[in-house]
Amino acid sequence: MDISAGTANLQRGHSCRQLIEGIRQYFLAGLGRKQVKKIEVLSNRKGEVEIKKAIKIPPAVASVRPVWVVSGLAMIAVVACIVFGFAWAGKTVTLVDGGQEIAVKTRSASIGEFLESQNVALGTEDRVVPDLAEKLADGSRVVIKRAYKITLSVDKEKTEFFSSAETIGDVLKEKMVALNTEDMVVPGAGTVLAGNQEIRVVRVHTESQVIKAPIPYETRRVPNPEISRGLSRTVSRGQNGQEMQTWKITYHDGQEVGRELVDRKQIARPVEQVMQVGTGQQVSRGGTSIRFREAKEVTATAYTYTGHNTANGTKPAYGTVAVDPSVIPYGTRMYIEGYGYGTALDRGSAIRGSTIDVFLESEKDARKWGKRKVKIYLLD
Fold it and tell me: According to CATH, where is 2.40.40.10 located in the chain?
């Protein structure tokens, strides 16, 4: 009986104890039949051990004591177990994919083989850490960085792509987007990618601008009881000064978004304006003392009866005055220089602001009145 026929029954992947025992038995069987053979032990691609073939041993070797031969072959088997032990033994590997972490038992030699055995599909932009070619060891940690869809807006252009970068700053480095010290990244460059992301790079630049600007003059008001309350008189006119101003102007993507005054230098001082402000509330007209709450200087015109009643529904008569009710409310009593007493009862389409229209009995009188500047005193 040929020992090589018996070796075919030894299955691949047996334990070291089984291997040693198998060698011993086959060898002794061969000695008993005077068919001494050398047994060749090989390892296959998956790291499993198999007895590949048996070869006849020359007679000179066959004369060696069987026990020595058996011991020698046992030692060879032990060495083989040590060499291929790591390949035979299973490994526990931690796989991290999409934030999920699982522990996997495997006999794969490399990370690439491991992922293939686990049917893990990788996109073209997905990244594996460590590299696919790295050898696996017990306790290895394999992390798959999945690529996310990125929408990048920079320099007035928008592009879409996939990236497995760790942070937004890493994405910009991948795309070789150079940032100036003042540029802004939204969200910030340190933001960790956790899904599809829109990124905007805002180009920021500043410039200085020097302009000549006026310095407004101040007005000093001096009370004067000889002037009617509500009126004033300019004693001396004011004059603006001048200064040189330095402004820092900020632009985002070419559009001005703000300016800041950083320096100013006076080149001409402003001149103060002085005014006398009336505090008087009483005047004498025609020997009669008239007390009032406020005086105004207005433009006065005249009108006569046209067949229409006033805005208050009354028939106009001498003393009826048309006003702008937003300036002089309806019902206000007043004294009008050159006319006398009147009451705000009407309005007209041409009466706006500091303008009034006094009623006169005839068209001739209205024409004679014309248009004039007058003082009016609003009564309490």
Answer: 281-378
